[in-house]
Amino acid sequence: MSQENEYGAGQIQVLEGLEAVRKRPAMYIGSTDSRGLHHLVYEVVDNSIDEALAGYCDAIEVTLHEDGSVSVADNGRGIPVDTHEQYNRPAVEVIMTVLHAGGKFDNKSYQVSGGLHGVGVSVVNALSTELEVEIMRDGAVWHHRFEKGEPVQGAFERVRDMEPDEETGTTITFWPDNEIFETTDFTFKTLETRLRELAFLNSGVEISLTDERSEESSTFMFEGGIREFVEYLDETKTALHDDIIYYEDETEGIAVEIAMQATDELQGSIHAFANNINTREGGTHLTGFKTALTRVVNDYANSEGMLSDLDGDNLRGEDVREGLTAVISVKHPDPQFEGQTKTKLGNSEVRGIVESITHEKLGTYFEENPDVATAIISKAVEAARARKAAKKAEELTRRKSALESTALPGKLADCQSRDPSKSELFVVEGDSAGGSAKQGRDREFQAILPIKGKILNVEKHRLDRILENNEVRALITAIGAGIGDEFDIDDARYQRIILMTDADVDGAHIRTLLLTLLYRHMRPLIEAGYVYAAQPPLYRVRYRGNTYDAMTEEDRDRIIEEKCNGNPTQVQRFKGLGEMNPDQLWETTMNPENRVLKRITVEDAAAADRMFSILMGDAVEPRKQFIKDHATDAEWVDI
Ligand code: 0RA
Fold first, then answer.
1. Does residue 382 have an active-site annotation?
2. Of 15, 35, 29, 44, whose CA–CA distance to 148 is shortest?
3. SS3 for 479-504, per residue?
4. How far does the centroid of ligand 1 lie from the alpha carbon of residue 132, in Å?
5. Which of helix, strand or coil describes residue 325?
């Protein structure tokens, strides 16, 4: 084959590849909503993180520009600019246009790009109207430019010599294509959370984020790595020991790092990562850790005779993990991701490796720090006692409800449908709103459960106490899928659970209490996307026989301006759901044709855990601060 033919074939392959990405973007980046949009940034940052893991880069700067573009700059070696033999084009052009080309250039031991949706920067390029790259390497500054993934003819150039004191590196700037993405508006907080996490997971790398639109900025650099991650997660909690337990090891090219701390909380939170990817579905690293943790704690407790109160029983894993905050991070040369969302680590060898490292290092730690071991075990024994008491209480409730003619709570106005996929449960604050909702609903598929007053704060009580609360019990029975370890989502009687609370501070508080209960004890409902917040309007504007509902003050003002020429006939403010008559409630908030529901998602489990601990825990100052920080943007209902 002649040189020319080869070039032609390569060119065609590139164009076909880019076209495939633009035709089916979701296949490459998961989705084209806000989540997919933010993935573009993560994809580019992952390439810089790879440079850092290879030991050549220690600073990454992400900038959101006013014109909607984002740049990611690093001080790595710079993307190669020499001519790629096979393609007869600059290597940077190949990396930017050929799917999965990035990793093939360099034999890296761990590569994070190429992970979850890790498809390489070429995908970001294909999904951008424009992409510019500036490279400092081989003594010069180089530029190249692309449009919708295709190189702009003549745009590759050597701009100037590098100054003697200039650092090598790469800056990639891209403009996401608004014909592909539903939104191209980046959210500072979303990026900040992920970049902070990356900084924890890759100690010593400085990662900064600057938003030129709002002049917000953050810089993260953690010498202590995941130790500082645990400190951060436990910031508002009371720890049972000062030092963070930490160990690391490398076996057969697989690096394992674990940090943990026991707290007096009732909730534990273990966050497992593989090659910087949050493995929400767990996997072999998590299993190995849990197995060894339970064994080490029981071995120590037995040898010290600390389990005499448990009628000869051993501690269960869940007892030991109560109040435990842990971060597990493994880096693997060839990670296998499985599960529904590809966030479960599948490599079978990892289980034994994590298990034996934990067994050895944690065992030694306990021998050397008997005070810490004793604190952790006392807490676990307490948890085991409560677990046994809860079991008894639950059996009692079950027996009781079996005796009653109907197991469903009396306050529930159930729907007629028995098809969970069509059925909705409105959990409504207060009896008066509950009454309106019962009258206004479509009883075919909408059930109403009124909840009175503030429900129990489940963040502060164990399951035995939680089950004593009538409001909580009514909700559990109405949903019908059990609670805690016994929870089975297949038994859920509704696939939409809609929290309908007033649009005021009390309403937000009740919603948060309900969300805490769902998040802590029925989390699969949230993960399956079954949980929603209703969005009742705040204002009703009338003008010349028409009515318009507004969700916010800005909405109201816009309507007055645009629909009423600045002169509304009447503006009504709804103070609470109870003020709406049944028809209004149906029309504005319940009727599937008109209503706006907000699906509750758990974007980031670590952030959600922290949020619930802060919002529902004992420490007052951080809560005040949190609410002050988030009061205006209502985004915290999003978990
Ligand atoms: C391929 C090979 C080499 C570096 C890179 C790619 C690279 C890619 C990106 C993307 C963003 N920042 C980056 N930095 C480096 C290694 C080249 C060598 O051996 O010098």
1. no
2. 15
3. HCCCCHHHCCHHHCCCCEEEEECCCC
4. 16
5. strand
Residue 467 backbone dihedrals phi, psi, to 5 degrees? -70, -15
What are phi and psi for residue 392, nearest 5 degrees? -60, -45
Which tokens in the block code for residue 622? Answer: 């951080």
State which fold the 19-220 domain adopts: Heat Shock Protein 90 (3.30.565)
Does the annotation count 490 as an active-site position? no
Asked if residue 502 belongs to a known ligand binding site, the reply is: yes
What are residue 143's phi and psi, to 5 degrees?
-125, 150
More confident residue, 513 or 174: 174
485-498 pLDDT tens trace: 788 999 999 999 99
Q: Is 138 annotated as a binding residue?
A: no
Which residue has better confidence, 171 or 604? 171
Active-site entry in 33, 395, 504, 618: 504
pTM attached to this predicted model: 0.76
Q: What angle do CA 300, 301, 303 make, to 5 degrees?
A: 65
What's residue 630's pLDDT?
58
Reported as a pLDDT band with limits 50, 70 and 90, residue 103 is low
CA distance 435 to 598: 23
Q: Return the CATH number of 398-536+598-633, one of 1.10.530.10, 3.40.50.670, 3.40.50.1000, 1.10.3720.10.
A: 3.40.50.670
**For residue 296, which of 370, 380, 386, 364 has the smallest C-alpha distance?**
364
In the chain, where are the structural domains located?
A: 19-220, 226-392, 398-536+598-633
Report how far residue 6's alpha carbon sits from residue 601's, in angstroms, rounded to the nearest whole number.
48
Q: Which residue has the higher pLDDT, 53 or 112?
A: 53
Distance 123 CA to ligand 1 centre (A): 16
Identity of the residue numbered 629: D
Read off the tokens for 182: 């539903």
Which of 264, 299, 318, 506 is labelled catalytic? Answer: 506
Q: What is the largest CA-CA distance in the chain?
A: 86
User: Which class in CATH covers the domain with range 226-392?
Assistant: alpha beta
Which residue among the candidates 61, 132, 429, 604 is catalytic per the annotation? 429
List pocket residues of ligand 1, CB cut-off 6 Å. 47-48, 51, 74, 76-77, 79-80, 95, 102, 105-106, 170
Phi-psi region of 147 (alpha: psi -120 to 50; beta: other; left: phi over 0): beta
Which atom of ligand 1 lies nearest, measured to the CA of 169?
A: 14
